Amino acid sequence: MVARKRKAGACGHEGSTPSPPSYSAIPVKFTKQQQASHYLYVIQHRVRGDTQSTWPPNKTLFVLNVPPYCTEECLSRLLSSCGTIKTVDLKEKPDHAESAKEAKPEFFHPKLIPGIQVAYVVFQKPSGVSATLNLKGPLLVSTENHSVRSGIHKWISEYEESVLDPEALRVEVDTFMEAYDKKIAEEETKAKEEEGVPDEEGWVKVTRRGHRPVLPQTEAASLCVLKREKSKRARKELLNFYAGQHRETTMEHLAQLCKKFKEDKQRIELMRAQYKFRPY
Fold first, then answer.
1. CB of 116 within 8 A of CB of 89?
2. 279 has which bridge partners?
3. pTM score, whole prediction
4. What are the recorded GO MF terms, alphabetically (predicted)?
5. Which CATH number fits domain 24-162: 3.40.50.1000, 3.40.50.970, 4.10.640.10, 3.30.70.330?
6. 49 phi-psi bin (left φ>0, alpha ψ -120 to 50, beta other)
7. Which of 46, 55, 69, 180 could be joined to 60 by an S-S link, Cβ 3.0–4.6 Å?
8. What is the distance between the alpha carbons of residues 94 and 85, in angstroms, rounded to a whole number?
9. Beta pairing class for 24-29 and 139-140
10. Which letter, b or e, does each residue of 109-119 get, where b requires 16 or more Cβ atoms within 10 Å of its Cβ?
11. Which residues contact 188 (CB under 8 A, 6 or more apart)?
């Protein structure tokens, strides 16, 4: 039997890199003992035509297939050997704009369980992108210096973090209520200032606080009232015009019906006069 040579890296062997077109594949292992590799697919970030993007194209790396256990800090550590990294932003799906870093309340916005994500990695220099495209693996997520919890240890830590601290919760609620009271006070002040002041058409907004019985006697208020009366008069004239036109059309229709009724009546009388009784 003649032995056939098989090309290295084909049919899913260790050297294979099943990357999409134009992407470079970087193998990643959770620990050194893990046999199978997870692949990150990377490419330089580009946009089509007139599409606007806030990511710097020559310094941004677009990463596909980011596993759930890989955080922004972890991904930054894995790619730090290629150059200084400015920002790492994980997203559920591709986007053309950077996400604003907002400080969300800890207790009122629970963390969702992440799935496979995409990432935008911005390097300080363009050379970091080219170095990452030529990066060989496998990269290790959990090492002795940077241990990443998994399995039952991760579940235990997540349970401990889910137990609320009463004092921290009280501070969070107090901060939220202070911001809410401040917002309500500003809205009431604004409503009080606008109370009794007519708009462009002369209408006055009535709130729960009530309204002034008399409009302020100012030149602007008088002009608004005159403008409103003029607009009402114009609408009334237009309605009267259409009403007169409709009335004339109705009268013409009635006259035609009367004329046809008379003609039919004369035709019936003529038919009766010409009728002759013929028993056989």
1. no
2. none
3. 0.49
4. RNA binding
5. 3.30.70.330
6. left
7. 55
8. 20
9. parallel
10. eeeeeeeebbb
11. 209
